Amino acid sequence: MSKSVLTGVALVLLAALAAFLAGDISQMVRYTGIAGFACWGLAAIFSGALVSGDRMRANFATETTQDRRDRFRWSIRFFLIGLPNVAAVLIILAMR
Predict the structure, then answer these.
(1) What is the DSSP letter of 64?
(2) What is each CA distance from 94 to 55, 82, 87, in whole angstroms?
(3) Residue 52 DSSP class
(4) Is the pLDDT of residue 78 over 80?
(5) In the Cβ-directed half-sphere of 59, how many Cα atoms lie within 13 Å?
(6) pTM, entire model
(7) Comparing C-alpha atoms, which of 33, 36, 40 is closest to residue 19?
């Protein structure tokens, strides 16, 4: 397992602890959902998926290969951090 997935699992466990301490385990859906979709939003921003074709072409022309690799790595990392959180939300909602 990669560090990013383990970080996502740690966030799920932290959200479960926070929900347990708050006395309302249903809050876990809110906490993990916010964390998961925020990470996926950051992944979309870093991947460049939310820009127009002209902006994507301009970014490609001005950034170095190393910058592009770093941006892609961060995009993958954020996606993998969000994956266990979104999976936890779907599992919790399916069990209701």
Answers:
(1) -
(2) 40, 18, 10
(3) -
(4) yes
(5) 17
(6) 0.87
(7) 33
User: What residues contact residue 7 under an 8 Å CB cut-off, 6+ apart?
Assistant: 81
Longest dimension (CA), the chain: 52
- The end-to-end CA distance of the chain, in Å, is 29
Geometric angle at alpha carbon 28, from 27 and 30, rounded to 5°: 65
pLDDT digits (tens, 9 = 90+) for 6-28: 999 999 999 989 988 988 878 88
The string of pLDDT tens digits covering residues 47-67 is: 988 989 898 899 889 999 999
Q: Which residues contact 26 (CB under 8 A, 6 or more apart)?
A: 19
In this structure, the number of other CB atoms found within 10 A of the CB of residue 71 comes to 15
Joined together, the tokens standing for residue 50 give 């939310």
The token pair at 51 is 């820009």
- Helices (DSSP H) in the chain: which residue ranges? 3-22, 27-47, 53-62, 65-95
